[in-house]
User: Which sequence fits this backbone?
């Protein structure tokens, strides 16, 4: 039971910050000729290594711009690290931004299938669970309404509900629990706890140390792209609050 | 093998993306999906009225001649333009979730294919009305349509990679396709072209597809093997270039979106 499901090996991520974003052919040609294609190197992550074992709940904490979201994107496979590697065992449900895959012209019901397919969930499973998804999101009255008419809270609720209908091996949650009203936040946390009990591994990014302490048992602290501390959640949160 | 397995896993997503394209395109229009039939019929009527007086002597059965050319060209035009924008349009998704990115141009080409199949109904209606004699060779339309599909997929992938780096391509391509349309024998016969221009038009891959389309629909002939070989060669080259370029560049998309 103690195998590693996420292994982050010495990951570094470099971004090139072009002084001006060149995306027209003319500009590119001119700047190239003038040798003006200047950029600053920016290392969003520097030699970060950590492991997450199966069933663990790990918090990722750090100030704004410390590389938390970049780390999550590297783990989710959205970004390829410049150096180092990430090894993942099992299926991932990335909740980096809820409702990222929604088409706002489609109805809630149609979006369940679209978004479910994006997350790689089988269609039969979604068909069986349409009612559950809608019920959890508390959108019974709006199931055949185009999502563009939804409030942002409704979109988030639907997104969370779709993403968590399935029991993934690894759940990646970025900051999303801070949206939605108080009651729905509690519901989300309950559902995440349920999944943890069933053996899902959780990676949570949050600014609320309170929430991290409540949900996670381990934590990783990032500071300007460096990993400062990896260990017990209380230790890490204590250090984070003194930064 | 790994690629095939991965493709299978994402096949439902491909279906969903196609059905989304189709649903959103005609949503909120009263006639909805019927437009895929009505649109080519309307275009055909307009062009027939305009051009049939000009080319009347040289082309028999102008409506069907025109529609065969139009069907192939519109298919190419629609699928390659939509595929070109597919990566940029789905930026929000590509930034947030890991997905095989070739699904986006591929889904656009598949949606265009569905539209072509319904446009084909329009062609059949015109064939009935004009009482054009058809034989079993009409079933061979799958070949020109399939070749156009491959060609569009390859071209769409090349274009989508280029568009991510240089958004100019989007605007430039509109001009290119207009020129391309005039260099494809859609509403004029090859025989009326001066030799110099004809040699350019002959080299246009879409000309072969259009010719093959007319051969099976209008002239009831079986396309010769050499013609198929030419098609395979052209499509093969474009698809290979498209896939190689795409594979090489796909990891940098996210940095440029």
Assistant:
């Amino acid at each position: 039971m103690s195998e590693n499901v996420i292994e982050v090996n010495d990951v570094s991520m470099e971004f090139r910050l072009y002084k001006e974003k060149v995306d027209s052919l003319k500009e590119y040609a001119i700047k190239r000729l003038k040798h003006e294609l200047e950029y600053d190197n920016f290392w969003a992550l520097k030699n970060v290594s950590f492991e997450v074992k199966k069933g663990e709940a790990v918090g990722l904490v750090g100030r704004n711009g410390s590389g938390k979201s970049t780390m999550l994107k590297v783990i989710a496979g959205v970004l390829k690290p410049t150096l180092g590697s990430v090894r993942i065992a099992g299926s991932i449900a990335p909740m980096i931004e809820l409702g990222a895959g929604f088409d706002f012209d489609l109805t809630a019901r149609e979006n369940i299938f679209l978004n479910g397919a994006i997350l790689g969930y089988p269609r039969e499973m979604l068909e069986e669970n349409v009612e559950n998804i809608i019920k959890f999101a508390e959108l019974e009255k709006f199931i055949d309404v185009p999502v563009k008419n939804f409030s942002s809270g409704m979109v988030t609720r639907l997104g969370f509900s779709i993403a968590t209908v399935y029991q993934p091996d690894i759940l990646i949650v970025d900051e999303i629990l801070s949206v939605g009203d108080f009651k729905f936040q509690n519901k989300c946390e309950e559902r995440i706890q349920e999944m943890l009990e069933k053996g899902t591994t959780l990676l949570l990014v949050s600014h609320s140390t309170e929430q991290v302490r409540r949900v996670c048992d381990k934590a990783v602290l990032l500071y300007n792209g460096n990993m400062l501390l990896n260990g017990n959640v209380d230790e890490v949160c204590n250090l984070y609050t003194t930064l | 093998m790994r690629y095939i397995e991965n493709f299978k896993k994402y096949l439902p997503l491909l279906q969903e993306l196609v059905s989304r394209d189709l649903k959103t395109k005609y949503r909120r229009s009263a006639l909805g999906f019927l437009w895929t039939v009505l649109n080519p019929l309307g275009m055909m009527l307009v062009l027939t009225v305009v051009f049939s007086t000009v080319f009347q002597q040289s082309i028999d059965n102008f409506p069907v001649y025109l529609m065969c050319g139009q069907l192939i060209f519109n298919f190419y035009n629609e699928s390659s333009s939509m595929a070109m924008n597919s990566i940029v349009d789905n930026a929000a998704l590509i930034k947030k979730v890991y997905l095989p990115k070739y699904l986006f141009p591929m889904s656009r080409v598949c949606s265009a294919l569905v539209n072509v199949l319904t446009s084909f109904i329009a062609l059949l209606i015109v064939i009935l009305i004009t009482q054009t004699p058809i034989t079993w060779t009409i079933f061979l339309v799958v070949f020109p349509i399939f070749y156009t599909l491959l060609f569009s997929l390859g071209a769409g992938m090349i274009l989508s990679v280029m568009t991510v780096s240089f958004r100019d391509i989007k605007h430039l391509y509109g001009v290119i396709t207009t020129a391309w349309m005039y260099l494809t024998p859609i509403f004029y016969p090859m025989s009326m072209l001066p030799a110099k221009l004809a040699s350019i038009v002959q080299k246009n891959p879409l000309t072969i597809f259009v010719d093959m389309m007319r051969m099976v629909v209008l002239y009831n002939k079986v396309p010769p093997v050499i013609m198929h070989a030419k098609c395979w060669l052209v499509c093969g080259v474009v698809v290979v270039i498209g896939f190689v370029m795409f594979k090489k560049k796909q990891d940098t998309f996210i940095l440029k979106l």
Summary: Chain A has one domain: 4-240. Residues 2 and 53 of chain A are 6 Å apart (CA to CA). The beta strands of chain A are 4-18, 39-53, 57-61, 83-88, 92-95, 170-174, 201-205, 218-223, 226-232.
